[in-house]
Specification:
Structural class of chain A: alpha/beta
CATH class of the largest domain in chain A: Alpha Beta
Strand content of chain A: 15-25%
CATH topology of the largest domain in chain A: TIM Barrel
CATH architecture of the largest domain in chain A: Alpha-Beta Barrel
Number of helices of chain A: 12
Largest sheet of chain A: 7 strands, parallel
CATH superfamily of the largest domain in chain A: Alanine racemase
Oligomer: homodimer
Number of domains of chain A: 2
Helix content of chain A: 25-40%
Chain lengths: 371, 371
């Protein structure tokens, strides 16, 4: 006899694919006439690159991943049609594999350009995306390297030229306009090559940041691209966990590791099977919360590897009982709120969502098991 | 043409299985005559439950996981011989699956005990481990619930009785002795049932904490069980990442998101393909480091999702070049050091080790691909 995965699992992540697609369409409308890609690196920010990309592929024609392995897996999931670009570019010796899988490398360095241009061993390399740095000082050609490349251009068909904004979530930061001006000057030297600068937050800066192609990632998944302003995007993730045990704790008793929390009054504590081993940050110790029946449940003590405790003293026993579900992420407590309590950003909360959760993908109101 | 996984991957985790086995033997010697189990929950603290447990199974006869799904996967990896206990116990309706997979549940609540005792639908449930709380206020029977159970004992064969220390890494904490005394009184009421209290740090408190069975986890993987004292255990994890690009940055230029780091002098920056999308904590922004050629490389700016930057200005160009490997975890910078910089504990660093890394398992000096 074998139980179904949902009842075996004490914690469930529900992913609203229809919501992700709606977010993509909103971002595409806002960016038009620029084309709109989708960034699905890091397993679609922890939500599942294959199901998320298959849902988006109804509208979206171009996907970005970070690594060659991610590109190979996504090509298998999506088939031959959509374009897949690999942001980190080819490591030495992998140009042939990019060509074989019809992956578009982003070429970030003179060395990557040289190798891509000269590789003759595998199938003939196809087009590539040129990455020029304009103020991030991470990947991409420097201004000097870009000038040198123009003096002695390689025989590469540029599918696009791109750069990346460092401070797009801070609209008033002077670096934004400086990067835009530098990028416009660079793009002007590659006439006919589509230009791409904006990711999620950049889309919201101004239409002048859109150029020919935008590359939203976090905003697809409900992270607010404009911190401090109302979030125009749908929340697409819900994390809930089953109460394993309710404990009646006396005043003065401690809860969890290090006896870090001491009860100021007698109370009831609910223990659920989620912990930092599931990517639920230990930084939420004594700071995070859950929700049950609309009530906020303070997180008590330290987050352990596999368990976390919530104060359910204020919730009727008829609601807070073993088997009841506590919401850890959802309408009451979104990824940005959890991130703020953990001292990080929503991106890290999403990427951390662990492999022990049972995952349910919902599409237009229907629930589907992952395939 | 297809390249091998190691050259496709920009970052490698090497796991020293022989070191893990040596750590287990050291802990077993220190705990004798108590028996020594191995805790391999959360995918063996991120290191791979199947390869780690197969290596340990040469000596170790009992394994602990957290969830039923982990138990099922481990049973498949280990075959029928070793005992596998599931700390979170059975969720409603799963007792038959425990019996079918010969998994030993830890029964934490009166409800779990009732269901295990009464379940007659599936194969007849076998023995179980009783968990009694002595001061953690997480899982386990309260003193009152334990007394009630003794008054009306269920027909369960107790394979062991266990409890868990809240402050074992703080030897002087008064709760340690209180928990030991409470647990000794509980165990005395179940004569003939093996008793288990100590996990990694508890082993080092005193032999009086060993009882009949110890359950080390973190110490197997090199986390120091006695913070502030010399670590007697072997480091078993090395994380290294390939330099994608070296950037020459002028004085006054900023590096990374938010322009958070501004160069105080001209310098060279190395970018490697590791980020919080790989579980490398964003909390290491501006605080962490890497090592190359024995030199400490400050981590510059913010950790991004897929990339992180190090200052290689002090390292000769002959060493710090694209393709060279920077050590992110290893002999120079152990899990406890990285954890201290990130404001967390080594456990969370290990559990976070992501799925994009290429993993190499080393056994007695030899490297093996994962199977």
């Amino acid at each position: 006899m074998s139980t179904d995965p949902a009842s075996r699992s004490g914690a469930v992540v529900e992913i609203d694919l229809a919501g992700i697609c709606a977010n993509w369409r909103q971002l595409a409308r806002r960016s038009a006439p620029a084309a709109c890609a989708a960034v699905v690196k890091a397993n679609a920010y922890g939500l599942g690159a294959a199901p998320v990309s298959r849902a988006l592929a109804a509208d979206c024609r171009m996907f970005f991943v970070a690594t060659l392995d991610e590109g190979i897996a996504l090509r298998e999931a999506l088939g031959t049609a959509p374009e897949i670009a690999v942001l980190n570019g080819p490591l030495p010796g992998t140009a042939g594999e990019f060509a074989a899988q019809t992956l578009i490398p982003v070429l970030n360095t003179p060395g990557q350009i040289d190798e891509w241009d000269r590789d003759r061993e595998g199938p003939r390399p196809g087009g590539a995306i040129l990455h020029v740095d304009t103020g991030m000082a991470r990947l991409g050609l420097s201004a000097r390297e870009f000038a040198a490349m123009l003096d002695d251009p390689p025989a590469i068909r540029w599918r696009a030229v791109m750069s990346h904004l460092a401070c797009a979530d801070t609209p008033d930061h002077p670096l934004n306009q400086r990067q835009r001006e530098r990028f416009a000057a660079i793009a002007a030297q590659l006439p006919g090559v589509p230009a791409s600068l904006a990711a999620s937050s950049g889309i919201f800066l101004a239409p002048s940041y859109h150029f020919d192609l935008v590359r939203p990632g976090a905003a697809l998944y409900g992270v607010n691209p404009q911190p401090g302003r109302a979030n125009p995007l749908r929340q697409v993730v819900r994390l809930s966990a089953k109460i394993l045990q309710i404990r009646q704790i006396d005043r003065g008793e401690s809860v969890g590791y290090g006896a870090a929390h001491v009860m100021a009054a007698p109370g009831r504590v609910a223990v659920v099977p989620v912990g930092y081993g599931d990517g639920w940050p230990r930084a939420l110790s004594q700071r995070g919360c859950g929700y049950l029946g609309g009530a906020r449940l303070p997180l008590l003590g330290r987050v352990s590897m596999d368990l976390v405790a919530f104060d359910v003293s204020a919730v009727p026993e008829a609601l807070a009982h073993p088997g009841a579900m506590i919401e850890l992420l959802g309408p009451h407590y979104g990824v940005d709120e959890a991130a703020a309590d953990a001292g990080t950003i929503g991106y890290e909360i999403l990427c951390g969502l662990g492999s022990r959760y049972h995952r349910v993908y919902r599409d237009a109101g229907e629930a589907n098991e992952p395939t």
